[in-house]
Amino acid sequence: MSSDPEDDALSWEGDDALEARRPSARPAKSESVEAPPPAPADAPGEPRVTPTAGVAEQAGVAEQAGVAEEDEQGIGTVSLLMFGILGGIYLLYTVGWFIGGAGMQSKAMFMLPAPLYVASLWIAILAPALWFAASLVLTRGAKTWVRFAALIVGVVLLVPWPFVVAGGGGVL
């Protein structure tokens, strides 16, 4: 800390410790990298190792580690927001299938026996949640656009038509 009272007003106790822990804007170059000693030139059949080859090899390892660090950071904010929006759509689809299917039950009983209708109703109710989970699990290693494509295909295919057409009343 300086002895100037104006500088004291603009700083807090312990600012120096925070500055020491703050990462620098540019990564510091490692100067402790030691190249392996060169092999004797008269050794037949062995490749000669130069100091620059060892440094280049270590730089390649560092670049691979940097790529791995980027992969471990996770998904971005926009992707996370889109997954949330699509998950909400699938949740609304589940509710829509429940309401639309329950409202249509009395009118569909003349075509299907009750156990078959109830089984198909539960399959329809669970389909959006199963599609969402399957899309996320099966495209885990894929690129983000592939995951979104799988989810958008499900949004198009799993529209709760009994709810959309009849407004939940089941009148078809």
Helix content: 55-70%
What integer is the average pLDDT?
75
Range of strand content: under 5%
What is the radius of gyration computed over CA atoms, rounded to a whole number of angstroms? 31 Å
Give the overall shape, derived from the CA principal axes.
Answer: elongated
- Structural class determined from secondary elements: mainly alpha
The number of distinct β-strands equals 0
Protein name: DNA polymerase III subunit gamma/tau
Keywords: Membrane, Transmembrane, Transmembrane helix
In terms of topology, how is this protein built?
Blueprint: H1 5-9, H2 15-21, H3 51-72, H4 77-103, H5 105-108, H6 114-138, H7 144-157, H8 161-166
Keywords: Membrane, Transmembrane, Transmembrane helix
Biased composition (Acidic residues): 1-17
Protein name: DNA polymerase III subunit gamma/tau
